[in-house]
What we know:
The complex is a heterotrimer.
Chain A: E1 4-8, H1 12-24, E2 28-32, H2 35-44, E3 49-53, H3 61-70, E4 79-83, H4 88-97, E5 101-104, H5 109-120
Parallel strand pairs in A: 1-2, 1-3, 3-4, 4-5
Helix pairs in contact in A: 1-5, 2-3
Chain B: H1 5-29, H2 34-53, H3 57-74, H4 82-100, H5 109-121, E1 138-139, E2 146-152, H6 164-174, E3 177-182, E4 200-206, H7 211-217, E5 226-231, H8 232-235, H9 244-264, E6 282-283, H10 297-323, H11 327-351, E7 352-354, H12 356-373, E8 377-382, E9 387-389, H13 390-411, H14 415-420, E10 427-436, E11 439-446, H15 453-462, H16 474-478, H17 502-511, E12 515-521, E13 525-533, E14 538-546, E15 549-554, E16 558-563, H18 566-570, E17 577-580, E18 583-589, H19 590-593, E19 605-611, E20 614-620, E21 622-630, E22 644-649, E23 655-659, H20 661-683
Parallel strand pairs in B: 8-10, 15-23, 18-20
Antiparallel strand pairs in B: 1-6, 2-4, 2-5, 3-4, 7-9, 10-11, 11-13, 12-13, 14-15, 14-21, 16-19, 17-18, 19-20, 22-23
Chain C: E1 8-15, E2 18-23, E3 27-32, E4 37-38, E5 48-52, E6 55-60, H1 62-65, E7 78-86, E8 89-97, E9 99-106, E10 126-132, E11 135-140, H2 142-151, H3 155-163
Parallel strand pairs in C: 2-11, 6-8
Antiparallel strand pairs in C: 1-2, 1-9, 3-7, 4-5, 5-6, 7-8, 10-11
Amino acid sequence: MTKTILTIDDSASIRQMVAMTLKGAGLNVLEAGNGLEGYNTATTQTVHAVVTDLNMPVMNGLEFLKKFRQHPAGKGIPVILLTTESDEELKRQARESGATGWIVKPFKQDQLLAVIKKVTGA
Amino acid sequence: MSNDPAETFRQEARELLEQLEQGLLDLEHNPADDDLVNAVFRALHTIKGSGAMFGFTDVASFVHEFETAFDKVRKGLSPITPELIAVALDAKDHVHALIEAPDSADGAGEPILAALRGIVEGDSFPDAPMIDPAPAAGVPLEPTGRWRIRFRLPADALVHGTNPMLLLGEIADLGPCEVTALVDAVPGLDVIDPESCLIGWQVDLTHADPVAALDDVFLFLKDGMELSIEPLAIATMSEPELPPAAEAILDILAEEVEALAVVADVPAPKAAKPSKEPREATVAKSETASTSMRVPAERLDELMDKVGELVIAQARLSQLAALSADGNLKTVAEELERLSSGLRDTTMGIRMVPIGTIFSRFRRLVHDLSRELDKEIEFITTGEETELDKTMIERLADPLVHLIRNSVDHGLESAEQRIKAGKSAKGTVRISAVYAGAEVAISVTDDGAGLNAARIRAKAEEQGLITPETRIADQDLYYMIFAPGFSTAKEVTSLSGRGVGMDVVKRTIDGLRGKIELTTRPGEGTTFTLRLPLTLAIVEGMLIRVGNGRYSIPLSAVEECVELPASVATHSRGRNFLDIRGSLVPFLRLRDLFNTPGEPDAHQKVVIISSGEGRAGLVVDQIIGNNQTVIKQLSHLHSGIETFSGATILGDGAVALILDTSRLVSYGQAYEEKFRNESGRAAA
Amino acid sequence: MTTFTEPMRALTLRLDDELFAIRAESVREILDLVPVTEVPNSTPFAFGLINVRGRVVPLANLKVAFGMAEVEPDQDTRIVVIETEIDQEPTVVGIVADKVYDVTDIEPAAIEEAPRVGMRWRPDYVRGIGKRRGDFIIIPDMQRIFEIEGRRSGTSTAEERAAS
């Protein structure tokens, strides 16, 4: 079955890049511009993994994560955070909030694919 | 194992000659197959060599000549023709005689060799390229490190999107490994939180140095998880996960299972217990003889008995463990179940032998009969892989030979008679073997003239078995051919008269606790079917409940289970059919069949079984589950009961009857036919 | 009837209100009542199966052969496991007994031929009638009983039922 990945980022170019990379690997992609949009999409459609930025207006990545994990649809779905630096404190916070993994920006396309493959098996 | 080297050679030679014969017969149908030619050549070569070594010089020198003549064939300088094969078979018989009864074989060798040389010197072919048989390649494994990896994820790992299967998959990608789940932290079902990850894992991995790779695997989890990576030599000295007594038992069982696998030449089931040394190099088997051992049949009987008892005891243990809250006990019980299942499969693999081993001997028989009687015969075998108990196969050989001879000699008409009757000149004899519940059904069919009821009747009256006034149905008349002394052969040909009459066949089958059935259609042919019990078979069964009784259905016969639709349950108005994805399947209400008192359960279930081409549904009160059943034969007291083919003992000690699925399917078919006739009549 | 030339070593048991003597050497063991699995479509005579240490043993109701009434099993009820011949094959079967007494020797002098007429039961089922301490003891012909009763199996009824 083809898996669907949700990408949440307020930067349209990042979203575009992620979408292109993932679609090129045969995955379906949904997009959202902030945490709230992402939450609505992820809790109403079938999503096999989420890649989300941290700093976004309206609802940021961590808030999305915490809210998502409380929703029945959100338990067990891998969520990957995009971080701008390798901040240990940030990683700890992310983990506590329920993140499955992270990718450090800027990232290469194959790094993204490797992480998606690791957490979804796709 | 015999201490007499001559006897050892004879046994080995018998097997080689058997292979040789099969090879020659196959070669007749596939003359272009170089592999077959080489196989024949190898067999000759081995017999020559061993013969010389064990003092059978006559054999060695004869085979040498045989080999020399056949060498031309191998080089492609002489074609393979039916004449060549016939002479080669004669040569094989001569070798056999030289080994078994050397005095009688005197002088018979020369003419055969002369004939062989004559055929081979004749035509010559241009040099055909010869394919070298590939030598058996051994693939030694590089000794690498063995590591024991143990990890436990944080309890919220699953909720946070981590999939342990993917992690294990990543580790498995690194190299061969064995995974054990560590369940000691898993509480009882009543208190467990399904969202928490309480299972730990232990992976024994073969890899040069996995530390860096594992770092990558657990990249996102390193901080919250427990992880230990130890070289295995050290790991085995550390605290074992299972209680020591359990480990010891599992060790012994695992060794026993592997040892048996070596004896039986059957791949051993993989034990989850880690082995203490790196895996031994596996060498690809060579095509001729694989290592085998001779074991007295009584020892195998003992072993089968013990395995049967072990299966019963293990089922009881599993029952007790299921009721217990002790996680470790459950683990050991499951482990034991796996090992005992493996043991059962391995031991059954020793004693059970594919019936194809005697089928092959019949090909030679039909070949010879065909030539002697000048009848063209097509001999078809199916179900060669069907396995039976070894002693049973040996005892079936003679009766089957007789039935085949009978079919060929008396059943099949001559070519002209066949053509006159509008049949093909070539007659067909078919022998097949198939499982039917707790039995094996072996059939010998011919498309000949069928049994002649009038002739049988005349003979029966002549023998005084019936009087002219006796009224007897045709079907019962046919069965009279099994009466002692009965024989309708107009003359006793060298092939079918040997004191081996149908009555001896019946007696042999009776002695095996089997039954013999026959159906015949005048002008179309005859089928003899032998039904034999699968002795000491341990098979998977589906346990069902009808009323207060529990019964077992051989799982191999079960296709699927469905619920009985409420509408059908209440008013089927005598139309007991179910629509299964478009086709109508007749069903039988077991409660009715068994005359069970009381009311049926709500929500009856239907188990769809199949036998041969037919299907039927069995309506039951409850489907309990699957279990391993040790098949016990019913005694003579119950031999007339048709719906059951055996009995088994359940985990709680109760006896459960095993349903005869082929019989039930035929009931269903009979019902279907009756229904069709009646509705046909009603519609008319 | 077979002539008794030597004392018969017999196990005495009671069915309903009659005493029976079974050849002691044919008795394998005596069990308390165990769960019985009924065999559907069997005769009332060969009605059940029991588990004896992992072996499936058929259970026979001798009372059927002698037209006796059924009683509720109680703490005296036993299953006597014997070896007898069925279809010329030695077979292990169990018979239900209302009470089992002891093993005694019955003197040949004390055994009489069963009367040809006037007896409640089939004469071919009875080898003889012995006397022990004032009571009449029936010596059954087990082989004959199993031969006749065992032959009546309910196969046709099963098929009929299936076709209905």
